[in-house]
Amino acid sequence: MEQFLDVSLFNSTLRMVTPILLAALGGAICSRVGLFNVGLEGLVLFGAFFAIVGNYITGNVWLAVAFAVLCVMLFSLIFAYLSIHLRANVIIVGISLNFLALGLTSFSLRAIFNVKGAYYDKNMQGLPAIDIPLIKDIPWLGDVLSGHSPLVYLAFLLIFVFQYFLFRTVSGFRLLAVGENPVAARSLGIKSKRIQYGAVLMCGVLCGLAGAQLSLGQVTMFTENMTAGRGFIALVATMLGQSNPLGVGASSLLFGFMDAVSIRLQGLSLPTHFTMMLPYVVTLVMMLFFKDKSYMQEARKANESSR
Amino acid sequence: MNSKLTQFAGALVQPIVAVLLALLIGALAIFLVGGSVMETYAEMWKGAFGSFYFVTNTLSRATPIILVGLGTALAFRAGFFNLGAEGQMILGGLCAAITALYVPGPGWYKLVLALISGIVAGGIWSAFAGWMDAKFRMNLLITTLLLNYIASLFAGYLVAYPLKDTTGSAAMAQTKMIDQSAWLPKLFQGMSLHAGFLIALAGAILLFLFMKYTVSGYETRMLGNNPLFAAYGGVQRGKLMFYSMLASGGFAGLAGAVEVLGTQYRYLDGSLSTPGYAWSGIMATLLAGSHPLGTAFAALLLAALQTGGMGVERNTEVPLEIASVIQATLILFVSAKLSYSFLKRRKARAQSGTIS
């Protein structure tokens, strides 16, 4: 047991959790303004791909991350335009965005790099690992917390930033108001469309970072369908965390931990199916306790907001 | 009659425009990678419908997509986003395989029983999500997504450990081969098309008649169009949700069973989820606006794009993924279409002078 729960397990948990956490925070922001973003998976996949493309073009890791963020923002703009402006069904737009990401990245992988399946270049630099000065000297904790890519630290910092922003600032309250009741928010003179656009773009930034961590953080490569359901896991983490940044952080950690445990069990050639299943079962049980709004309320709200 | 005809034509204009736009975007993508647009599309057509062999190939690929599409169409019509087709399909396929392998009896008996068990397994899995929503108000969209993972991991465990085929040399996570007597018969000698296609067509027609001509079909549509009005009209949402999800999952389970009994002849881990049948089926539903016959047609179109993409891959420099690009843009344009009709309605309302 001691061998099992060693430093590297927790260390890899933090690394695994980062893409999920970033995307889940983005999903939380979106759902707080009343747009349930099913397209997280696609946006993260775009992020992972464009981070590699950016790295290939510029040769600089930081420019690559910026490039990824910028490109994903463009794609989240499609989501925003269709769902806010044209009032298309958000879920359908999200699903089609996932398809678009899968198709377009695989296609461009062949078109730009002329490879099938995966692109890898050993000269390409990934995100550097940074040690935190003081913490790294603490015996056990230092090995767990230190030595990650900057995006890992950023992700955990953002939990608290968003918690503060949503529940302690005026703009945060306005954002919540738009999600609670768009009609009432508009009657107060809040520009609800602008806030919704802002939230979706923020979600794009976060998904871009998540993708960059995925393709430049742990390994420096892109493989087809690299996200492999992580975006949907992030979506579930958003739900489980009740779109509350601290809750999202906690539920993402649970998913990351289970991921790490499963990989460890694989090493011991034990069946991993049930450990991998556990987060989903836990989410189901948790949903039983945190009940959703009733469909009648939803329907009434939908009727009101279409006026 | 005339107005009905124009209405029908009007409903067709939007998807056709969307298809043309998507093909245009596809042409742009082909042009950007330096391929010849005309040649690529010619190869795509040949790959999908070029010869009798390719036509049957396309039809057999369309079979599970049609069935999944019908299931989601039914749920969407009732206003439920059933995104769990993949899990329902996997369990349907798995149960069909197990039944065909371990139930004693003559071949046809095993075959029928396997199909039924597939329907039941998919239906129960889906109705479970419907029941949780009706009873505990757990969001259906999320539960169906979650149940996908649970089903796929559970099936993966079963075929990797207790039911694993240990007779063959390949160390694959799969069940034993089903006895030939319990296979779905092929429609033509040496072609991949099997009797499942006829089942899918029959399903499409039955669902169409059900939605159009029965009371429950009307209630289902009413619930989807306006839940408040349906409640006012005395439709019991919980009950209807349970039954429509049961039927919806049943279609998806049947899709898995048909694929296992007609093409794979065993349950191989990942063989039902990797080709993306479930998601293609959902795409077909979205494309056709949940109309049963339209869904079957859209499923055929998507299958043709996929098999056509393989033809493009074989004979030109343009990658296979061009098909997915076209598919995705197609769906994006179609989702924009939904809002287009919304805008039109609002304009009409503004013109008639009522403020609402």
UniProtKB/TrEMBL annotation, chain A:
Annotated GO CC locations: plasma membrane
PANTHER family hit by this protein: GUANOSINE ABC TRANSPORTER PERMEASE PROTEIN NUPQ, SUGAR ABC TRANSPORTER INTEGRAL MEMBRANE PROTEIN-RELATED
Name of this protein: ABC transporter permease
Cellular localisation: Cell membrane
Pfam family, any one: BPD_transp_2
Membrane topology field: Multi-pass membrane protein
The species this protein was found in: Paenibacillus montanisoli
Molecular function GO labels: transmembrane transporter activity
Record-annotated membrane-spanning stretches: 12-31, 38-57, 63-84, 91-113, 150-167, 195-212, 232-258, 270-290
Annotated keywords: Cell membrane, Membrane, Transmembrane, Transmembrane helix
InterPro entries xrefs: ABC_transp_permease
Domain of life: Bacteria
